[in-house]
Amino acid sequence: MASTFSAGGFGPGPAPESIWQAFDQLRSTFEKRVGGRMGRGDVRAAVLVLLAEKPMHGYQIIREIEDRSGGSWKPSAGSVYPTLQLLADEGLITAEEANGRKTYALTEAGRAEAEEAGPAPWESTGGATDGSGFGPLPKAGIELAQAVAQVRRTGTPEQVTQATAVLEEARRRLYSILAQD
What are phi and psi of 119, to 5 degrees? Predict the structure, then answer.
């Protein structure tokens, strides 16, 4: 962001509306990653991962995905059952009917496909576990952005300077985490 002098603010820095634009951008980025909709291949991958653990019926699969994603993703029956049919057509799963319910299990080819599927899709949702749809990292980022906005609105010049130094150090430390092997 370009530094400007903001009306009513202390010293150089982004205008208050720029802070809110950045906050909104941050929030929308996290919401896209942890929202209730996943990509097209995610239902397929989730079904394969779950069936690799044990045979299940469709409703169990839906419940397990919702539970494991911390409530941030609940695929509809309209996406799970067609996926099950497609996997059956491809010879990756079999279905046994008992008590009016179809229970699905992986075939050998399905086990191989499940191993290649990689991590479960809900593991890429940021680890949401509190039912908010946000995992700990996005939640911490949003709370930090709120604190920055509060310091910018009400802080003294010294507090703004101190907060800037804290943020710069936090940025450096975050990058150093990524640089570790």
Answer: -70, 155
